[in-house]
Amino acid sequence: MAEQSLETRRRASGFWNSSIVKGSVIGGVLTAPLIGLMYLMDKLAGLPFVPFMLFDWITRVLPGGLVTFGIDTMIDAMLIAGMSVAAAAKTSEQVAAVLLVFIMGVVLGALYFLVMRKLNAAPHPATGIVLGAIFGVPMIAVSLPMEQSGTSPMFTVIGLGIMFLGWGWAFAPVCRRLVYEGSGIETEDEIRWARSINRRQFLVRLGVSAATITVISGGVGSVLAQRERRLLDEAVTAAGEEPAQATTRQLPNDGDPVVPARGTRPEYTPLEDHYKVFIRSEPTNIDISTWTLPIIGMVENPMVLTLDDIRNNYEPQSEYVTLSCISNRVGGDLISTTWWTGVSLQKIIDDLKPQPEARYLNITSGDGFHETVDLDMIASDERIMLCYEWDGKPLPFDHGFPLRIWLPDRYGMKQPKWITGMEVTSEYNPGYWVGRGWDEVARVKATSVIDTVAVKDLAVVDGQGFVPVGGIAYGGARGISGVEVRVDEGPWEEAQLRSPLSDTTWILWRYEWPFQEGEHTFEVRCAEADGTPQIEERKGNRPDGASGIHSRRTRI
Ligand SMILES: Nc1nc2c(c(=O)[nH]1)N[C@H]1C(S)=C(S)[C@@H](COP(=O)(O)O)O[C@H]1N2
Ligand SMILES: [Mo]
Hints:
Helix content is 40%, strand content 20%. The chain is α+β, with helices and mostly antiparallel strands. The chain has 3 domains: 217 residues, no CATH class; 166 residues, Oxidoreductase, molybdopterin-binding domain (Sulfite Oxidase, Chain A, domain 2); 109 residues, Immunoglobulin-like (Sandwich), CATH 2.60.40.650. The strands form 4 sheets. It has a 5-stranded mixed beta sheet. Strands 3, 4, 7, 8 and 9 form a 5-stranded antiparallel beta sheet that branches. Strand 14 and strand 15 form a beta hairpin. Helix 3 packs antiparallel against helix 8. The longest helix is centred in the middle third of the chain and has 40 residues. The termini are far apart. The model has no long low-confidence stretch (mean pLDDT 91). It binds the ligand Nc1nc2c(c(=O)[nH]1)N[C@H]1C(S)=C(S)[C@@H](COP(=O)(O)O)O[C@H]1N2 and molybdenum atom (MO). The ligand Nc1nc2c(c(=O)[nH]1)N[C@H]1C(S)=C(S)[C@@H](COP(=O)(O)O)O[C@H]1N2 binds next to loops.
C-alpha cells in the first residue's frame, strides 16, 4: 500500500525523482553554506578562500592564450552589457570563481546520488566522507601553494579538511532520506524521523538552514573583510613619513585657457578611481614590518634595502604619469593618471656595481608576478623609478604597496607592483605576461578617445551654434602634437589641446563642433609629438595593444 502510493508520487514527480536532479539540488544546497563558511573562515582565521585560490591556480597553469581569451571574452561581454571594465572586471572574476566551486559541488552531489542509486543500498556515512575527500583533497592541494597570507599549512589542511569532510558527510543522511524513504531499508531511527517530518518539510528545513548559514557567514565575512581592508589602509598610511593631508592638488596647467568640455574624464584621476589590474583574485597584502628589498645577482655590491633606506638614501623624484593596461580597448577605461613619487632606479643600480656581463634586472613580486628590465634601458633613462607614493601618499594597497616600478612609455604589464626582490642577471627571463604570449616591449600605442559631445553647452556665435566635443589623447612618453575630429566622414578638423600635466601623461583636447541637428558619427585621431600619426587600423589588443579610431554615434 505504502509502496504503491510512493510509486504514484514517483511518477507524478518524475523529474524530481531523477537522482541527478535530486543530487544536483542537494549538492547546491550543501555547497552554498560550505562556500559561505570558507569565506567566513578566511576573514576570521586566515584560511585560504578556496574559490579564489582555485581560480588563481587555474589562471596560473592554463596556457597564456587561453587565459587571455578568457579575459578578452569577459571584457567583451562587459562592454556589450555597458559595464565599466575598470570597476567590474575583478568582481566578475570573483563571481566566476565562486560559481565554479558551486558548480563543482552541484556536479559532485549529482554523481553521489547517481552512484548510490546504482549501488541500490542505503548510503553509509563513510561514503559521504569519501565524497568530501574527493572534493576537498584537490581543493586543498591547489590552495596550499597559492595561499599568501602566511597561515600555517597544517592549520589550512585541518581547517579546510573539516569543512570539506563535513560537507561530504551531510550527503549520506540526506540521500537516505530522499531516495530510500519508504523503501524499507531505513533504520528504526530513520523511520521514526521520517514519520515526524515529511519530505517536503525536511527539504524546507534543509534549505532554510543552508540559506541561514550562507547568509550569516557571508554577511559576517564581509563585515570582517571591510574591517581588514580598513586596517590595511591604515597600515599603509602609517608607513608614510607624515600623515597624508587631504589637500587638493594644484595642477601645473591650472590656468590653461583650453577648458575641458563638460563630460571629459578628470584630467587627474581621483585615486580611488584609478583602474586596477592584478593577476590574483584579490590584491596582495605585504606586511611592511618584515618587508625588505634584496637586490642580488651579478653585482659587486648586493644590497638589502628597507623602505626607509629607499626613501632616505636616494633623491626623491616625482612625475605625473598616465598608466595604461595593454588590455585596454580603444576608448576603454583601463587608463588613469596620477602623481608618482619614488627614486631613480639608475642610482640604485649604479650603487650595486653590476658586473660587466650583467644585462637584465629581474623583478619579482609578492603575488608571483615578475618582469625583466634591460639594464641599458635603466642606464639611459633616469626617469625610471622605484615608486613608493601615489598622489603624495604611500602606494595604495591595491596599487602595489610598498613598492612598484615605473617605466615611461610602456604598458602596465611591464611594470611590477608589490615588488619583493630583484636580481641582476645575464640571462633573459620573459616576464609573466610576455611568457604568456604578450609583446616583449609593450610600448604604448598612441590613442585618442571622444569622452563627450556636450550638447547642453551649445553656444551660439553669429547665429551658428557650437557644441563642445572633448576627450583625451595619449602617446606614452612620446607626447601628442595634434588631435583631429571629423563628423560624418567630413574633413578632419583640428582640435585645441590643453597643455598636459607632464610629458608622460595624456592630453585633454576640445573641439567646437558647428552644430547640426540629427544623428551624427564623431571620430577622433591624434599624432605623436614628432608627427607620427596614431595607427588607424582597427586591431585587437593582443599581443601588443589595441589600435584603431575611436568613434561615437550621437543623436542630437
Ligand atoms: N605584482 C604585480 N604587478 C603588476 C600586475 C600584477 O598582476 N601583479 N599587473 C600589471 C598590469 S597588467 C598592469 S596594467 C598594472 C596595473 O597597475 P594598477 O593596478 O596600479 O593600475 O600593474 C602591473 N603590475
Ligand atoms: Mo595590464
